[in-house]
Design the sequence.
């Protein structure tokens, strides 16, 4: 059985007329007729299209090496479905692995950031405190030298009375690159104060007692507490 005979046999087996086959291929009926009579042969593009329409192997159609079509349409559809499913499964697994890696990296970053903050807070301390009379603005300037300088740290002085009902107050310090400074104003005479430096960093804070302070006529006395 030659090419022309195989073409006629398979076309009839599929229940197709020459007109129907020609329409499916986008050629004229006369072209199909010439293929079946052996007057001409289809070119490569039409040969591939013939195999797709008739569901044949090219080797079977041209050489007759196979005795049957390659696959039934249903099996071909199932094969395509399986390939699509496997591709989707692989893509989903890749996305899942990427998400897990991303979450792990983010968690590691968060843990490292929290540990860094904890280390910073542990290092925040007071190296020295000076008390100076401010004759221009009145009262006393309190200078706090930190033991560890970190960008973003804010310091406030919390001042409370030890021997009276004087209301506690909080004063924000100004930072000059080396020291935190706040002006105490005019403290009441014969009142003993406890002064605490409060370090603020992000959402955390640390308190360090620095002075027991006492003021009288024109002078003051204090007891250091930061190194106790």
Sequence:
């Amino acid at each position: 059985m030659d090419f022309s005979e195989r073409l006629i046999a398979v076309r009839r087996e599929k229940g197709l007329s020459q007109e129907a086959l020609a329409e499916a291929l986008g050629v004229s009926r006369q072209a199909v007729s010439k293929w079946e009579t052996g007057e001409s042969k289809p070119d490569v593009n039409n040969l591939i299209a013939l195999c797709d329409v008739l569901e044949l192997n090219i080797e079977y159609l041209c050489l007759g090496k196979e005795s049957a079509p390659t696959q039934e349409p249903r099996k071909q559809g199932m094969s395509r479905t399986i390939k699509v499913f496997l591709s989707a499964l692989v893509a989903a697994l890749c996305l899942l692995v990427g998400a897990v890696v991303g979450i792990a990296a983010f968690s590691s970053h968060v843990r490292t950031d929290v540990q860094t903050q904890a280390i910073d807070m542990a290092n925040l301390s007071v190296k020295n405190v000076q008390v100076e009379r401010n004759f221009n603005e009145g009262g006393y300037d309190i200078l706090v030298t930190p033991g560890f300088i970190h960008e973003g740290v804010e310091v406030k002085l919390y001042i409370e009375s030890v021997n009276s009902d004087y209301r506690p107050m909080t004063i924000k310090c100004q930072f000059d690159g080396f020291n935190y400074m706040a002006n105490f104003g005019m403290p009441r005479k014969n009142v003993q104060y406890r002064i605490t430096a409060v370090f603020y960093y992000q959402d955390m804070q640390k308190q360090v007692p620095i002075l027991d302070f006492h003021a009288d006529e024109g002078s003051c006395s204090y007891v250091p507490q930061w190194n106790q």
Remarks:
- Helices lie at 3-13, 18-25, 29-37, 44-54, 58-63, 73-123.
- The longest strand covers residues 204-216.
- The two ends are 109 Å apart (CA to CA).
- The chain is about 40% helix and 25% strand.
